[in-house]
Amino acid sequence: MSSFPVTERSRIRRLHERGTHDEAAVHAVLDAAPLCHVGYVIDGEAYVTPTIHWREGNRVYWHGSAASRFLRKVAGQRVCLTVSLMDGYVMARSAFNHSVNYRSAMVFGRAHVVTDPDETAAALHRFVEDMFPGRWDDLRAMTAQELKATSVLWLDIEEASVKHRAAPPGDPEDAGHPVWAGVLPITTTLGAAEPAPGPHHDLPLPEALADLIASGRLR
Amino acid sequence: MSSFPVTERSRIRRLHERGTHDEAAVHAVLDAAPLCHVGYVIDGEAYVTPTIHWREGNRVYWHGSAASRFLRKVAGQRVCLTVSLMDGYVMARSAFNHSVNYRSAMVFGRAHVVTDPDETAAALHRFVEDMFPGRWDDLRAMTAQELKATSVLWLDIEEASVKHRAAPPGDPEDAGHPVWAGVLPITTTLGAAEPAPGPHHDLPLPEALADLIASGRLR
Predict the structure, then answer these.
(1) Considering only CB atoms, which chain B residues are within 8 Å of A30?
(2) CATH code of the domain occupying A23-187
């Protein structure tokens, strides 16, 4: 795995910022959320597109329609891929000290399209298995046409920043002010599975999906 | 309120995409989440910074430290502000038809800094009250120094796209394939409030915060 510099670039809030210069910390934030926002430039202007990412070592992948304007435009371009998780509202005794508990990683690298169909298929396999262990083999097999219609992109992380805040309000100097202060934790979870209609609507939920729901995590 | 064109620009998934050409739909997505991702260009490269936004009519605001590189760089620049909410994993019978239920809005406009201190104070007041009704008056008052250290930015939406998917798997043709299919709903909620230590740690939680937690929404 190649090394990359971790720099201070992102800011969520003016205070209580913590930059951890650690590749493992960058990877941990990438792995904690399925959703990222990819920033790219078209004709000098910024665009930010949400997508689902996955990671293997220092390489981050995402995918979409081979016909997508987004995917065609970012190929070959250096992009910024940001993952952010809000963990809580930090309610201080002053407006100024209100904050957010969060984790955020910004990674930079050049976007490439996987050109070999076997590699595309292998990457999609790893994507599904990463999200939902054991699912791939249970699915109706992918067709050649579906594979052709799907582009997988990747970047190797060349530079990154990671930040987090996980603390109560940072305003002990105002502790005498009589207002409720503390943290309202934010939790994102999977709820009860909703089976689709069809002849197999009464199949039991696969154990891996039940485990994922029970884990309280999204991936 | 000025009108803006709503175009098809963002893509989360290759299938099942829905573009609704409606300013109210754009505003509803902006209002549903506190977190946005702002894309901007520095030296020809894209950056994506997470921040908290708020909206008044067709104007979207965010804020940060007056010393922030991000805020200084975006001032005067046309930026892309994207808000995305994941509402569920859509588990189809094939990998190709797996999808996400989501809401997403991309808005484009030129970023401006509020220069008048009274306007900055008024905007921050509306921000806090928008998030936490009734809280501003209970807080320790903002100082002139705190106000000076805080920049408020805004953009008027010039162009936007909004998309959402809210449906079971879209693969009835594969319904005969014997694999569990359906939706795993994703929910983001506020948990039990965690009071901060201090002489007033036993103050009751303000009713507005209790209501917000009970609402199952983040704002």
Answers:
(1) none
(2) 2.30.110.10
Instruction: Report domain extents, chain A.
Output: 23-187, 189-219
In this predicted model, what pLDDT tens digit does every residue of A109-167 receive, in sequence order?
999 999 999 999 999 999 999 999 999 999 999 999 999 999 999 999 999 999 999 99
Q: Which helix (H) or strand (E) holds A163?
A: strand A159-165
The C-alpha atoms of residue B203 and residue B195 are separated, in whole angstroms, by 9
Nearest Cβ partner for B178 among A48, A172, A200:
A200
- What is the reported pTM? 0.91
* Residue that is written with structure tokens 């991936």 in the block: A219
In chain B, % of residues over pLDDT 90: 86
For B142, half-sphere exposure in the C-beta direction (CA atoms, 13 angstrom radius) is 23
Closest CA to A161 of A78, A85, A103: A103
Give B-chain residues touching A208 at CB under 8 angstroms.
none
Which residues in chain A have Cβ-Cβ distances shorter than 8 Å to B12?
A: 50-52
Parallel/antiparallel/unpaired status of strands B182-190 and A194-195: antiparallel
Chosen CATH of B23-185 out of 2.60.120.620, 3.40.250.10, 2.30.110.10, 3.55.50.30: 2.30.110.10
Is the pLDDT score of A17 beyond 70? no
For residue B187, give the nearest of A149, A191, A205 by CB distance: A191
CA dihedral defined by B6, B11, B14, B17, rounded to 10 degrees?
-40
- The ipTM assigned to this model is 0.91
- Interface check A143 vs B, CB under 8 A: yes
Chain B segment 116-135 residues within 8 A of A by beta carbon are 124-125, 128, 131-132, 135
Which residue from B157, B156, B10 is spatially nearest to B85, judged by alpha carbons? B10
